[in-house]
Amino acid sequence: MTDRQHVKEIEQVLDGTQTGRDSFVSASWRRCVEIYGMDPARNEPAHIVTDAELRDHRKQAEWMIGAARSSLQSLFRQVAGQNYVLLLTDAKGVCVDFFGDDLFVNDLRGAGLYLGSNWSEELAGTCGVGACIVTQEPVTIHQDDHFGSAHVSLSCTAAPIFDSLGSLAAVLDISLLRSPTPKRSQNLAMSLVTNAARRVEMANLMAESRRDWVLRLSDSPEFLDVDPEAAVRLDGSGRVLGYTRGARRLFMEEGNILGRRIDEVLGLTIDDLPDLMRDRPTEDRIIELRDGGALFGHAIAPQAPRTALRSSRQGGPLAGLAGDDPAMEQVLARAAKLARTGVPLLISGETGTGKAKLARTMHMVGTASGFLSLDCAGLSPAALQQTCAGVNGPATLVLRRIEDLPEDTAGALAALLDSHASLRPLSTSCVAPGALGLPRPLFHRLVGATLSLPPLRQRQDMGALLDRMLRRRAPDDMRLSPSARAALLGRQWPGNLRELEQVLDVAIALCEGRVIDLPDLPAPVDAGDAPAVEESLEQVMEACGWNMSFAARRLGVNRSTILRRLRRAGLQSPV
Ligand SMILES: Nc1ncnc2c1ncn2[C@@H]1O[C@H](COP(=O)(O)OP(=O)(O)OP(=O)(O)O)[C@@H](O)[C@H]1O
């Protein structure tokens, strides 16, 4: 297109003729003439700020330049050899960081694709950065989409970067000096630049959230831990302190979520966050949305310790583990006092009573920043060492089902704890401390104090637990009929909280309307099979007629574990 044709098309657009341009281009042309008073025939070169002004702009944008650097570097590597240049501009359109091929520096500088160029729309006319600042959306301004004829050889694709309060902070632009004619040739550039902008927002949110919770969200479990789509920053009471643009889009219908509590927009509370930490399988970390959809969540605990809880009564994550139950209150008050010490702890209780959850929550209110969690069944010395190899600095080591620790790993674990004094072990076990059968040296490295969780059937806060679990799993207005509630309160719950969660999941799935009734409840599993946690191995064996398969099933372990435990305890069948 010649300059004359370009000017003519701009005039047609101003007269209201549709010429096939994207609407945001036509709108920008109109602003250029009607608001900034620009002449379509102009051929002005790029606007470059002075060195002193550039220093000022860079200084103001220092935090953003830092947050964006590694994303820009990786984006530049992806487009290496394809003549793309990357510009990071501040919210006013001044280029504060730049990645381009040294071979073309003079050409790039001449075209304004360089440090210090000012691409605000009121100076440069229609351009990628300028249109992005005005629309706050990603845009491609391709060749003669540009207003000024000086820029019509360029193709510029720009995406906005927002700070965690939702204000425009910067623009990331990827440009070509010369490009193929079809605009769609820049579709890949658009996807690269929007993804890079999302990662910069994420890096920025993470950097400013060291003392707060971050909840990262993704609709696919594969990307949850590596490249999530959205994130929110939460204070200790679950209020939203900041978010990425992805989260703003996600909660669009909720309006502004800043300052609101997360349970007002998602089916979870701050107390649920420990369940969404990385030690849980990704596919278990599901969060229900209010519109019936679901997302996967990854919660990252504050890295710096919060103020100590003097007692669980004062609120906070530990208090969220129970309602009004005297036994739980005692356990949690003790847990709150022990959480911030380095004392090794054993948490015992029947299967599903919430031992692992209590361990994670204690880590959260404790002082250690690192967090490791290992299942002891079948754990080899090599796997143990490999998991703990990268530890530097204070870390919590959760050892789940310590009673299943293979004999040959016991020595390695004792040695590891001796060589890593900053590792604090929190072990969980379904058998009473006295029946653990661990070698004495290891036992005393693991059990400085004990916490024993009551079985669900003995808890007096089951009503509150039921309501809380239902609120988290079902739509807001779903409730239990009085007879369904009474039936649940009367059950034995050999699988404890885990079983309760599963029964509710089944009931929610089977329920036709909004009221869960008796027929929706799955039948209780035979309470006679329930193992009593504090039962000794000998008692279990006797109850099972010394049949190892029965005993294995009753304790929820395999036969070889029973054999090993019998050997350790020096027990033999009386017949
Ligand atoms: N206080 C609680 N309130 C609500 N749900 C809970 C609570 N504690 C645990 N849960 C839920 O119950 C289930 C079992 O919890 P957890 O894995 O901590 O039990 P556990 O005692 O470690 O089990 P096991 O010994 O079988 O490994 C989990 O899904 C967890 O989210």
From TrEMBL:
Any Gene Ontology biological process: regulation of DNA-templated transcription
Pfam families noted in UniProt: AAA_lid_14, GAF, HTH_8, Sigma54_activat
Alphabetized UniProt keyword annotations: ATP-binding, DNA-binding, Nucleotide-binding, Transcription, Transcription regulation, Two-component regulatory system
InterPro entries the record matches: AAA_lid_NorR, GAF, GAF-like_dom_sf, Homeodomain-like_sf, HTH_Fis, P-loop_NTPase, Sigma_54_int, Sigma_54_int_dom_ATP-bd_1
Annotated signal sequence range: none
Source domain of life: Bacteria
GO function terms (MF aspect): ATP binding; sequence-specific DNA binding
Residue intervals of the Sigma-54 factor interaction domain: 321-509
Protein name: Sigma-54-dependent Fis family transcriptional regulator
Organism (species): Paracoccus aestuarii
